[in-house]
Amino acid sequence: MWRLIIFLGFLAALAFGLAWLIDRPGEISIVWLDHRIDTSVLVAIALVLVAAVALSILWSLLRLIFRAPSIFNYARATRRRRKGYEALTRGMVAAGAGDARAARKAAADVARHMPNEPLGLLLQAQVAQLAGDRAGAEAAFAGMAKRDETRLLGLRGLHIEAQRRGDAEAAHQFAKEAHRAAALPWAGEALVSHHAAHADWSGALATVEANARARTIDFKTAQRHRAVLETAIAQESELVDPERALRLAQQAVKRAPDLTPAVALAARLLTRRGSLRAASKMVERAFAAAPHPDLAAAYLDVRPGDSNADRLLRAKTLAKLAPEHPESRLMLARAALAVRDFPTARDAIAPLIAGSARPTARACLLMAEIEEAENGETGLVREWLARGSRAPRDAAWTADGIVSSRWAPVSPVTGKLDAFRWTTQMEQAGLAPPEPMLAPIAPSAPAEPPATPAPVEPPAIEVVALPAAPQSAPAPARPVVFPLPTPPDDPGPEIEAATHGRAF
Questions:
Q1: pLDDT at 457 (0 to 100)
Q2: Quick one: residue 326, left, alpha or beta (phi over 0 = left, psi -120 to 50 = alpha)?
Q3: Domains of the chain, start order
């Protein structure tokens, strides 16, 4: 609207000026070289405008003639750049689709049309990776790392290639260099994993703090990582500096209340210091949220001098916080077994074995202990031991295929921080076929040999091992499980064998 008003105002002013000049024609006389030119003012102004337009056109033609070579070079460069970007687009699409031949051809076109294009090096690296040429990929990434605009991308590629060839130290150096240049999530995570894999908990904690300040990780993740590292430091300081270990464990519990190892460690240290009430309250809060055998053991051991009857009372108190959870029932049944209160023990474990429920190995072995303690070595003991050998496995600390009875701050395979989770392993297909409640018969084709039963052979019941049924294809191999190393004075991972069947 305002533009229209301004334009109309300009036209009105122009018309007013022309009318004013027409009403006042005037005369102009020019004498030059014995020639006299008489004309009106309006005609003179028109001649001046025509001359200005003619000079402008002449100057434009002269500039076009002198700039013709540069204009030609610019047009040719523009055309080459357009072709180069088209080839780069085709190459990226082909590399993403896995078409190595088309990507290689596009990379050659990019190198011909745009030899100094940074993204051309990225395409060359992707082509080399598709072809399995690790040396070529590293050369392309190294070239990118030398250029300011692609330095971080090149370091990222070199880091990945170093990890692929198993050179952890080189990967660490590339991540460290990238972390110094900019706050990047992948570099910060790589540094934390490197420090943690080498048990450098203080260095890992400092890197986590730097990542949190740079906001490359969110607040919740930072708190969790801090808690895990503080728990690791507290475990190392438990015997040499209990006060520091307690302070770190309590701080870890505040940061991550669901971190069971921190709660159990803090409870043990509070118990040693005589703060029994504080230790009990801490374990009760954690057990109510997530029952765990380590928490149950820490709660029952708060007063080491307690009798078995007192421990049963404490077990009943703790079980009320999660009455339907299997850990509560197993804890209560074991505590009742210790005082030979067989009805209470059987009532506690009954929902885990009744009906269509499939009891786990711990439940079966605990039932075998109850039967043996109450009735002696009978056939039912052998039956529960046999069932326990093929029962579903109980929850354990698992990380990257590694199963351990003890928690660790990092994965022994990848070095990832906070990798262990308390989970139940999924049964492999055909590992444990359905079984009747009272059928002392081994499975027809077990995936692994069952545990050897106790040497008790009553005349009425006998465990019979049927021959393995022929299979058309070999059964899938189970993953190899490596338990974590234990200190020299530690008896090793807790084994839930048929000989003792202890759960915690």
A1: 36
A2: alpha
A3: 7-29+38-66 (no CATH), 81-192 (1.25.40.10), 378-467+480-504 (no CATH)
